[in-house]
């Protein structure tokens, strides 16, 4: 099972021996790959739609993993608590949707549970939610497929420690750990963020609104372009 660059980066964050709940699993590629590598004990592949669940079950069976991976149709983290995961992945969704899923499951506020999250949009909203709800970012990464700005992805590894804090916008939009990296994938992601900010600034100006906040953030981000 060959994973693409995005899923491979998420897989690298999964702890060895984990009981994994993969939310929005789609075809169950991630848990299948991790089981085949014997990196995890077992997994729950969950999706809200019947088609992906059927595909996941077929792939699980074809790979001889029916005894280690279960696939269920569920909304978000519904049904996952009973499985008893110590690692939860929520990948390929908008940041606002990921926040909605996490906020409905207070039981994930447990220092024994690792969260691996990959927002497709609005990573800053997810980052603020984590900081304001006692989750600490313990690692993060940015990967980019073929240098394309529309395929630049941020992966966040977090765990609950109960510390409520406010974060600045640079941390929210890109991440402190990422900002200290100078690799090309991170540079692509920063340029992508600047592009979105530029569009927002232009939109506000055309509407006669003030874009002071966005302009200040853009100036700070430009300092990290190499």
Description:
The protein has 226 residues and is of the alpha/beta class. Helices cover 41% and strands 23% of the residues. It has nine helices and seven strands. The protein has helices spanning 5-13, 29-36, 50-62, 95-103, 123-132, 169-173, 176-179, 184-206, 212-222; strands at residues 18-23, 40-47, 69-73, 87-93, 114-119, 135-144, 152-160. It has a seven-stranded mixed beta sheet with strand order 3-2-1-4-5-7-6, sandwiched between helices. Helix 4 packs parallel to helix 5. It is globular.
Strands side by side in the biggest sheet: 3-2-1-4-5-7-6
How many beta strands in the DSSP annotation?
A: 7
Helix/strand class: alpha/beta
Rounded to the nearest angstrom, the distance between the terminal CA atoms is: 36 Å
Radius of gyration: 18 Å
Describe the global form. globular
- Helical stretch tally: 9
Instruction: Summarize the helix and strand pattern as letters.
Output: HEHEHEEHEHEEHHHH
| Low-pLDDT segments, ≥5 res | none
Q: What's the overall average pLDDT, rounded?
A: 95
Q: How helical, in percent, are the residues? A: 40-55%
